[in-house]
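ASSEMBLY PREDICTION REQUEST
Request ID: AP-0331
Submitted by: J.K., bench scientist
Number of chains: two
Total residues: 621
Priority: normal
Notes: Please return the full assembly, not individual chains.
Input sequences:
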Amino acid sequence: MTLKALQAASTSRNGVGAFILQCKRLDFHYCDWAGSSQGMNLFLQHNLARFAASHPSIEIHVSPRPHRHPVIRGHFINGTQHSICVRNLEKGQVLQKAEILRDMSGEKARKVKGGRAVGSLNEGTRGVWSPFHGAKPPSFQG
Amino acid sequence: MHGRPLRLSSFSSSTYPVSSSSSSRYVCWQCRHRASLRPSALFSPTDSSSPFQRRTYATEPSLPDKFQAYFNKTIGKRLFKDGKIPGAAEDNTDRPQSEPAIPPNDEGTATAPLDDDPYYTPATSGEELESLGGLSGWWEKAWDEEHQYQGWMRPTPMQDDKAIETAIERALVEWYTVEKGSIEFRKSVGAAHRLWANDRSWKMPAVGNFKLSQRKNGKVQLDWERSEDRMEMQRWLQEPFQKDTEAPVLEDNRLVEADSETAKANTSTTAMGIEPPEVAGEEAAEVTEGDSAVPDEVLLEEDGEIEEKQPRIQSNISLHNHNLKFTVIKRVMQLTGILIPDTAILSINSSHALLQHLIQKPKPKKLAQLLIEGHEPTQMNKGIPLLAHLPNVQILPTKHIPSMTESALGRQKVIEQQLDEHGIPVPFREEIEQITAHEEQRLRKQIDAMTEDDGVDGRDMWSQEPLEDLRGQSEGLQR
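STATUS: Completed
Returned structure:
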């Protein structure tokens, strides 16, 4: 009987070969009247041009949203959206929020199982514990 | 005074109303006595609203004015012995109280009853009825074609910077043509500010070539290319003040220079409202109205086409002379139709400052307008294209509506088609069309801007597409 190797489909690792930015679009909503939008307005005038030029793969939409707080809404490749309200922030802080959205994956925030910060798909190198292997507990024999 | 309070029922009803509904009301005898002495104290026994409410002539004119009757019989007779007592005609004490005063019928407005009119049919809807009243069409009715309103200023403000510069040149050359003229010429013209005070039209003939410059010593020099142009200007300036029998006083061909000091000395008496002593007592001719008196009138701005000429003002003319400043500013306002506020006049001290104030565009009120038009890049954005010029940026002037998402996905036209078939109006149709047209224009500009450059190896630097294909896309959009 001939042996056949298991056909394993290649799993995608974003960044191993090529990196694809997960954020595909950013919407900037501002207000001409509200005072909470002052920082956002200054960001649009002074900082957004450089941010948009340095990220040509991100679609930038700027539109007014009258009588509302300023908002940055990010659209991601997996179809999700995430909004960050930037009311009463300075233009530098608005830029930080835009960078946070740019760096996001679009995945929903999930609780890490096991309480561990780092997870791996690989098996443990020392194997799974069993009661039949390992040091025996001490016996109290008088 | 502090005696036992008296009951209300102990008094007669003719002097004080008694409310049988409540027996707890108490009024002291002093108030009751005072009330009983009032001559106009009338009350209705049936008035149950309040026992203190009195119905008088002042509130109900149908009631007889007892005070007037009392006045006529006693005091009025003593004061007005001739018998003409004011208000005596209003004495209506003889009139029975039950008859109210009805005004006489206005016979002028009497109309025939509608039932007798054979041509009358009641209207079923309000669409065919003519509207009455309101101010719509008032302007057209008030000013007929023969008597059209002609304002002092240009009706619409100028937009072209070249035309505004020409208007400033015109105002300055008119002033200095008068100031550099001889005494006789200035006599015939009068004070410069009267030339275009109120009755002169803002339309004016074309001006020939001239050069106006100010030297370092403050002297202003006016050079005409042709003497005919200078004479034509002088004739135009004299026309409103010229009598029929007198010939125009024109200058000869000699060049006239005027020192700033002499100009000040001559203009010191030509301040607003003050005439120079030479022309004191002279009666200026009536100013002609309308434009018919001035031949060959040419609008300063002909369909927005201004020939680019050499600037006729060679240097920055000082406007520190108050008479010159206010005269020129007034004339420029008349020619351009742009109002210059008083706060700006203080800071305008030269012809360049005046020009800069007039051609500067107002700050955009909306941020979208500022972003679309673009502004000067800051220090940190040097070398970066403007936000509106970036290919991955879309700036919307209006609030985002769901129809915009549908139109971006391509479903909007299907939706509109179905709505039109069912006769349902499409919401926000005009806004979407406006934004779509704006986006098309933006893309066309981007493509044109990209295709202007040669790119790299005949390919666009951004998309690596052949430039010929991109140019074809631009042409497709134009169709």
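REVIEWER COMMENTS: The radius of gyration of chain B is 41 Å.
SIGN-OFF: pending second reviewer
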